[in-house]
Amino acid sequence: MAGERETQGSTQMATYGYHDNKQSHLNRLRRIEGQVRGLQRMVEDDAYCIDILTQTAAVNKALRSFALSMLDEHLKHCVGHAVAHGGEEADEKVREASEAIARLVRS
């Protein structure tokens, strides 16, 4: 669970909300990385400005979608767990989530 440490040999690892979908998230980020590399190629190949801007918008949308997915998992798992246990950890997780939402809104 969020913030909790699982012992794995002598190493401790935190398990976060995205853990169950980790491979899916990594695949998604690799697709976004490919889109960014595509943008680089477009500039190298002197592609038309509007085509580059269209691809840039697609990359921004993909990153925004990824961020919202991570936020959703954070709220369900990390914040939900902390709120269920109450106390200072709950206040901290809610504050962190609020700040993350504010950053997303401003971007």
From TrEMBL:
Its main location: cytoplasm. One of its GO terms (cellular component) is cytoplasm. Residues 1-20 are annotated as: Disordered. Keywords: Copper, Cytoplasm, DNA-binding, Metal-binding, Repressor, Transcription, Transcription regulation. It is found in: Cytoplasm. GO terms for molecular function: DNA-binding transcription repressor activity; metal ion binding; transcription cis-regulatory region binding. Belongs to the CsoR family. This is DNA-binding FrmR family transcriptional regulator. It comes from Streptomonospora nanhaiensis.
